[in-house]
Automatic annotation (TrEMBL):
Involved in cell wall formation. Catalyzes the final step in the synthesis of UDP-N-acetylmuramoyl-pentapeptide, the precursor of murein. It comes from Mesobacillus selenatarsenatis (strain DSM 18680 / JCM 14380 / FERM P-15431 / SF-1). Its EC number is 6.3.2.10. It catalyses: D-alanyl-D-alanine + UDP-N-acetyl-alpha-D-muramoyl-L-alanyl-gamma-D-glutamyl-meso-2,6-diaminopimelate + ATP = UDP-N-acetyl-alpha-D-muramoyl-L-alanyl-gamma-D-glutamyl-meso-2,6-diaminopimeloyl-D-alanyl-D-alanine + ADP + phosphate + H(+). ATP binds at residues 114-120. Residues 112-298 form the Mur ligase central domain. This is UDP-N-acetylmuramoyl-tripeptide--D-alanyl-D-alanine ligase. Residues 27-102 form the Mur ligase N-terminal catalytic domain. Pathway: Cell wall biogenesis; peptidoglycan biosynthesis. HAMAP family: MurF (MF_02019). Keywords: ATP-binding, Cell cycle, Cell division, Cell shape, Cell wall biogenesis/degradation, Cytoplasm, Ligase, Nucleotide-binding, Peptidoglycan synthesis. It is found in: Cytoplasm.
Length: 459
């Protein structure tokens, strides 16, 4: 993490005041949350709608372990007897501090974006690169205008490769992030329907994701899903300073699977790049495609394919992404409750539909958020696309998911598809249907908190 005297921090953050009295105070790391202050941290307060972080500055320095704090110029009465850096805007100062620190580091960077699979691909890429380098990656979903700066400021000076996830909700955000991170390689996992509410069309989403190229360093690598026409169309005439490589299911890609074998809790697969058989301890063919993207990035940075099996086989994904556990009745539970979109939801349902070894398959599905004016149609189409011969029961939670149930009833009947607005009621009813030979998929957008259903099944 960043570790510098306050005099340097003040210069990097464009201080407006004289900090010479506290010039030798050492800053170790940065925090924006008073509950997570660690010894020596620089505390960055923000003016919120309900609370103002500036109200806690004196306390976190005097009693909370922080060594210093930023202070926004338009907030009155900055404490004069404490190590305070006055700045025009605390958010901008945090970002400038991160940009300056990143520019001081001798590291390689892989930037990752896409509608689905960003975090999974990030975890895979970091694991593969760790076979050769000291690697750090974005923690959790710290992938926005605040999260990415905090991730950069947590990088150690001896880190050799940083794997940075870049998220967005509107046009221009990824361009801002990628110019801060300055990646040597970028991955665009896919183009889905997430953020239709903000951007209006998949075409606009594709344009926004492609902003990640704007920060690519000289002779960098652009890795993208070659089965996606929206990306192919936009990159066919690319004349920038990077090279292009594609991954996907079709043989038109630079890297594609030539065989896939389902095994317990994962898949074995081979690629067109050689005879090596890779084991991926994660369910779903879509995750094999994520692995291919990660493999191209690792190869670009010097990790040979023959060394990648160890990185894939030891993979542990961020929580609530295809996380397998067991319920109280011995049922297997796939907890994929971190997020959801029509594309990722369909992939997860297809995965469960095609699994063998279970005599009952149950879907627990929640609302998919931020889909715009056609959100009800997306939910209904998802429900009506469920294969009645491969899925036994559907339980949904949320107002939007009532449309999933309506669609599912058309193919399964009303005795196999049920809608709930109360998670406890859903969980109580669900328990009546599970046995030791049941598999349950739990998936919905983050705001639906469907992991509560998982926890209920485990009791």
């Amino acid at each position: 993490m960043i570790q510098k005297p306050l005099s340097e921090i003040a210069q990097m953050a464009s201080a407006l005041n004289d900090v010479s009295k506290f010039a030798d105070v050492i800053v170790k790391g940065v925090s924006i949350d008073t509950r997570k202050i660690e010894a020596g941290n620089l505390f960055v307060p923000f003016k919120g709608e309900r609370t103002d972080g500036h109200n806690f500055v004196a306390d976190v320095i005097q009693n909370g372990g922080a060594s210093a704090a930023l202070w926004q110029k338009d907030v009155p009465n900055p404490p004069e007897d404490l190590p305070i850096i006055i700045v025009e805007d605390t958010t901008t100062a945090l970002q400038e501090l991160a940009r300056s620190y990143r520019n001081s580091l001798d590291i390689k960077v892989v930037g990752i974006t896409g509608s689905n699979g960003k975090t999974t691909t990030k975890d895979m890429t970091a694991n593969l690169l760790a076979q050769k380098y000291k690697v750090q990656k974005t923690e959790g979903n710290f992938n926005n205008h605040l999260g990415l700066p905090l991730t950069l400021l947590r990088l150690r000076e001896d880190t050799e490769v940083a794997v940075l996830e870049m998220g967005m909700s509107s046009k221009g955000e990824i361009e801002f992030l990628t110019k801060m991170g300055r990646p040597d390689a970028v991955i665009i996992t896919n183009i889905g329907e997430s953020h239709l509410l903000d951007l209006g069309s998949r075409e606009a989403i594709a344009d926004a994701k492609l902003e990640i190229i704007e920060g690519l360093q000289e002779n960098g690598l652009i890795i993208f899903h070659g089965d996606e026409p929206l990306l192919l169309e936009r990159l066919k005439d690319y004349t920038g300073n990077g090279q292009l490589k594609t991954f996907g299911a079709s043989k038109d890609n630079d890297l594609y699977p030539v065989s896939i074998e389902s095994v317990e809790n994962g898949n074995k697969f081979k690629t067109n790049a050689g005879d090596e058989t890779f084991y991926l301890p994660v369910l779903g063919n879509h995750n094999i495609l994520n692995a291919l993207a990660a493999m191209l990035a690792a190869e670009f940075l010097g990790v040979p394919f023959e060394k990648m099996n160890a990185g894939l086989a030891s993979l542990k994904l961020t929580n609530m992404r295809m996380e397998i556990s067991e319920g109280a009745h011995g049922e297997k539970i796939i907890n994929d409750a971190y997020n959801a979109s029509p594309t990722s939801m369909k992939a997860a349902i297809d995965l469960v539909a095609n699994l063998s070894g279970y005599n009952r398959k149950i879907l627990v599905l929640g609302d998919m958020l931020e889909l715009g004016p056609l959100e009800e149609e997306y939910h209904y189409k998802l429900g009506s696309s469920i294969d009645a011969g491969k899925i036994d029961y559907v339980f949904t939670f949320g107002k939007l998911s009532e449309a999933i149930t309506k669609g599912a009833i058309e193919v399964l009947g009303d005795d196999r598809a049920f809608s709930f607005q109360d998670k406890q009621q859903l969980s109580n009813e669900l328990k009546k249907y599970v046995t030791g030979e049941t598999i349950v998929l739990v998936k919905g957008s983050r705001g639906m908190a469907l992991e509560e259903v998982v926890h209920a099944l485990q009791k």
